[in-house]
Design brief:
The protein is built from 9 helices and 6 strands, in the order H-H-H-E-H-H-H-E-E-E-H-E-H-E-H. By secondary structure, it is of the alpha+beta class. The longest helix is centred in the middle third of the chain and has 20 residues. The relative contact order is 0.18. It has a domain of 162 residues: NADH Oxidase, CATH 3.40.109. It is globular, with a radius of gyration of 22 Å. The strands form 2 sheets. It has a 4-stranded antiparallel beta sheet with strand order 1-2-6-5. The structure holds 3-iodo-tyrosine (IYR).
């Protein structure tokens, strides 16, 4: 087995190598397949990704044009590469294109949003924050978008004997998977919207999911409706979101 690299001066960089021989004897480890590239190549790749990410917008009017199922499958496969607490991958994606089920979801979502917007379940401060986005309780896109992908977090897992096995960092893990899903959908040229018709418990019932799963976020997916308008938002400047503690 190749040894991890040491300092050229002969001093080991790590005094506590990972995995320890004892750990490696008990669990399988493999050498990481990594191709190091030079700084300029990294700069180019980083900028290509940044510029693409910056073109992403949340879309609230989708074209009804169908989207092949294999594209959704590939996006979920990409999302499911997300790092997760103790590698438990505590998520389930439910992809719906059945118009009857989409319509049931829309009805239930609009009922919750009606309470949110028109019966003041979202307080004034919240409604003010949303005003520039122009959202309301109508969620037509839930019928129109060819796919609704509902992401569930698994708070625990059932062992074959029915007992519960805890998952760790469920929200963090599922949140990262959600981010990768958004990126995958965008990179393939489709659009989505992270939608949370809160409270979302109805999604568990409508989709017949087990009691260890809790809805985390829902993604309508499709092509944007041609000519769709989006809020003229600016993203925060790097200086507003990045603090560097340099040497
Ligand atoms: N879930 C509601 C309200 C909403 C909340 C936030 I925070 C948003 O950024 C946008 C909408 C809805 O989907 O309309």
């Amino acid at each position: 087995m190749p040894e991890v690299s040491d300092d050229p001066m002969g001093e080991p960089i790590y005094r506590h190598p990972y995995p320890s021989p004892d750990l490696a004897a008990r669990h399988p480890f493999v050498v990481h397949d990594h191709q190091r590239v030079d700084d300029e190549t990294m700069r180019t790749r980083a900028e290509v990704f940044r510029a693409s990410a910056d073109r992403r917008r949340s879309i609230r009017m989708f074209s009804p044009d169908p989207v092949p199922r294999d594209l959704i499958e590939t996006a979920v496969a990409a999302a499911s590469t997300a790092p997760s607490g103790a590698h438990k991958q505590p998520w389930t994606f439910v992809a719906v294109s059945d118009p009857t089920v989409k319509s049931r979801i829309r009805q239930a979502a609009e009922a919750e949003e009606h309470t949110n917007y028109l019966e003041n379940r979202m307080n004034d401060e919240w409604q003010e924050a949303l005003a520039p986005l122009g959202t309301d309780h109508h969620k037509e896109f839930l019928d129109v978008a060819p796919w609704l992908v509902v992401l569930f977090e698994q708070r625990y897992e059932r062992r074959p004997d029915g007992s519960k096995r805890k998952n760790y960092y469920v929200k963090e893990s599922t949140g990262i998977a959600a981010g990768l899903f958004v990126a995958a959908i965008h990179e393939m040229g489709l659009a989505t919207l992270p939608h949370t018709p809160s409270p979302m418990a109805f999604l568990r019932t409508v989709l017949g999911r087990p009691d260890n799963e809790r809805p985390f976020v829902m993604f309508p997916v499709g092509h944007p409706l041609p000519g769709v308008r989006v809020p003229d938002l600016a993203r925060k400047a790097l200086e507003e979101v990045l603090v560097v503690i340099d040497d």
